[in-house]
Amino acid sequence: MPIRVIVGAQWGDEGKGRIVDWFAATARYSARYNGGDNAGHTVTVGQRIFKLHLIPSGVIRPKVIGMLGNGLVINPRTLFDEMETLRKAEIALPPERLRISYAAHLITPAHQALDKAIETARGKGSLGTTGRGIGPAYTDKATRQGLRVADMFSGDFCERIGDAVAEANRTLKMLEAAALDPAPIADEYRRFAERLKPYVADVSLELDAAMKAGETVLVEGAQGTLLDIDFGTYPFVTSSSTTAAGTLTGLGLGLDAAKDAGVVGVVKAFQTRVGSGPFPTELSGDQAVRLRGTGSNPWDEFGTTTGRPRRVGWLDGVLLLYSIRINGINELAVTKLDVLSGLETIKLCTAYKRDGKTLTDLPFGPADLSPYEPVYEELRGWSEDLTQVRKWKDLPIFAKLYIQAIEELAGVPVRLVSVGPERDQLVEKEGPEPRR
Ligand code: GDP
Ligand code: IMO
Ligand code: MG
To answer: Quick one: which of 2, 201, 250, 294 could link to 99 by a disulfide (CB 3.0–4.6 Å)?
Structure first.
């Protein structure tokens, strides 16, 4: 298996970071292919909680080399802050352990200012972006005005970044937002260039060589399938290809790399979303508070990047089936099963109803979910605490039945069940695979 892709099967925050960390125990490379510091991936090791925004989660394991592909938009300030946080935790990232594509695009303070100003201008119709400048940076990429990592080393870089800020100022003025001073930004990015230089690499070439040498590359998706620019709940999406296919264009891999690829879909035992957009199985009131938590636990449903409360609801099997198809997911990792302990009944959305008809697929994708009404299967809950369980046989029967119901619906096996944020709070599933 040349590549194993870990991809979010919902609206992000499925627990990809902790699943990547588990697979990284046997990997040599951990690569990100999309997005930027809008991502927030948590890895918990003992008392230490790592919140990674740009650096691949696999690098927490000492032998793993992190790769940032051309598909990313990189804010160098976040990158260096994150490296510094890791250094303090005794995770050193010399250039041999972190490789950054020369073709990745740069995020500047102008992109962040534009992101915020555009969101403000949208008013009630705002998308609820993370404010990290992601949309404007990908806009510059698509309109061929972007600055790439390699551009930092050209003689006219300061002039070009200054021009880019001046250009952004024209839009900021129209949006009645404060203008930025280009000079200190250009100066800061000149210093970033010096620091970044030893890390810059041809990620595509290095990964190709690694795969030819028989190494497995562990690939970490950011966001989730339903936030994909093409396949998500458009326009309430991010600006990159979050799905498994993004791996190829975002890392510079050929189609042959996809042959026999392992695609692990990470799915939370319930559904969450942060930001605006449709959410058919959304809950409100006490039921929502029960799933979200109040913020007293580190894993409660508040954004890793922005701290915003996440919207919560029952697991949506129709959207899960869609994600499995779009990504070619061949196994699942179900996270946060422990959070459901103590619920009398658990609902699982197995289909949608529209005009008296029941359907399990989405003829025109998930962009407009408003005409659909979820159809639920009700399953019995369990009262036992799951956080100490490490073996499939030790899970309560109704917890096993819930996982099996997900498997039957999904048509792909559940390989891992996560019962807490800690590295070792993971159960490998045993037993027969689902009928297909
Ligand atoms: P990611 O963006 O997909 O990597 O997910 P996040 O890190 O944004 O959000 C997942 C949150 O749930 C983090 O706080 C994790 O530490 C936590 N988490 C992951 N798996 C589990 C689990 O099985 N149980 C509990 N209680 N928390 C978990
Ligand atoms: P991880 O990798 C959850 C959401 C934002 C917003 C939309 C667009 O941690 O799962 P953007 O700033 O990307 O332009 O915002 O996408 N969003 C995420 N939601 N998890 C994420 O990342 C997200 N990254 C972006 O909330 O709705
Ligand atoms: Mg997250």
So the answer is: 201
Q: Which atom of ligand 2 is nearest to the CA of 132?
A: 12
Return the ligand number nearest the Cα of 139.
2
41 is catalytic: yes
Give me 201's structure tokens.
């690499």
Active site residue 105: no
Kindly identify the ligand whose nearest atom is closest to the C-alpha of 38: 2
Distances, alpha carbon 105 to alpha carbons 11, 34, 100, 166, 282, in Å:
24, 11, 11, 18, 35
Check if the beta carbon of residue 25 is closer than 8 Å to that of residue 44. Answer: no
Active-site pick, 21, 41, 115, 338: 41
CA distance 153 to 176: 34
Mean pLDDT by 10 residues, the chain (436 residues): 92 98 96 98 96 98 97 98 97 97 98 98 94 98 98 96 97 98 97 98 97 95 98 97 98 94 97 94 96 93 85 98 98 98 98 94 91 96 98 98 98 98 95 58
- For ligand 2, what atom is nearest to the CA of residue 130? 12
The C-alpha torsion from 68 through 73 and 76 to 82, rounded to 10°, is -60
